[in-house]
Design goal:
Blueprint (H helix, E strand, L loop, with lengths): L7 H16 L15 H10 L11 H26 L4 E5 L6 H4 L6 E6 L1 H14 L7 E5 L7 H7 L8 E5 L8 H12 L6 E7 L7 H16 L10 H7 L4 E6 L1 H8 L14 E7 L1
Parallel strand pairs: 1-2, 1-4, 2-3, 4-5
Antiparallel strand pairs: 5-7, 6-7
The structure holds S-adenosylmethionine.
Amino acid sequence: MEAARPSRTALRVALRRAAHQLYDRPLVFEDPFAIPILGNEHAEELHRTPNPDANRKQRPSSLAMRAHLVARSRYAEEKLAAAAADGATQYVLLGAGLDTFAHRNPWPHLRVFEVDHPATQAWKRNLLAQSGLPHPLSLTYAPVDFECESLPDRLLAAGFDPAQKTFFAWLGVVPYLTIEAFRSTIRFIAAQPRGSGIVLDYGQPRRVLPFLEQLAHDSLAARVALAGEPFRLWFTPSEAACELEEFRLIEDLGADEINSLYFANRTDDLRMRGHGGRFLSAWL
Ligand SMILES: C[S@@+](CC[C@H](N)C(=O)[O-])C[C@H]1O[C@@H](n2cnc3c(N)ncnc32)[C@H](O)[C@@H]1O
């Protein structure tokens, strides 16, 4: 991504989480701060996002994207809850964007580290200051560019304790990285204490998708490239498993499994589609 500019894709996904709070019932991912964090600056944009009540012919692709985004946050926080119950005392959000977990953290013993590209993090902090949301005592910011800065150095400088069991979330970031940046981050996580874990999402390469999904893939890839954040990294499930060979209990879910977990029995069309996006969790 461009060094001096906050991530536009972070804003787009945050707008969709906020739209979910407004338009979808039942909620799959309840986030009372999803709208306030956007501030006045982006409120107008939020109200321009498609409203199913106003437009019954809402495009399936935009519902599928919203479903993907809210399900991945829910999945991540369910895995975090399991980690916290098992004694994790640190939660590291890699590429945190406008994630609001730190403002909803129910575990007094859980320290939260938000790692993000410096320009995105400065923008988020500015939005939070404008919205008047108080700074949670358990939250520490660590600005890092995964491509050219050391994640361990920045986290240690921020007070991260490498002796503690830690849970990492890496949501909506992997496709934007080089393989080198991905691997060096995975190596760092794999060196954490036993019982630590990770959740991430990744996309499958175009070549393994059916024809119509290749077109949807091209359209999304063109949009993020226009936003200055081109996709660069894809995995098949077996490639992802190879990258994570030091981890155990790998759970790697496709759309069908995610739909039965979070979107069964709905009367609207909110659900994931296609075979591109997958959610993965793994433990040490
Ligand atoms: C699509 S957003 C996802 C944000 C957040 N995880 C969420 O789900 O709302 C991508 C995030 O990755 C971060 N990112 C992309 N490339 C990065 C890099 N090289 N170093 C650090 N952060 C990066 C962006 O700043 C942005 O916050």
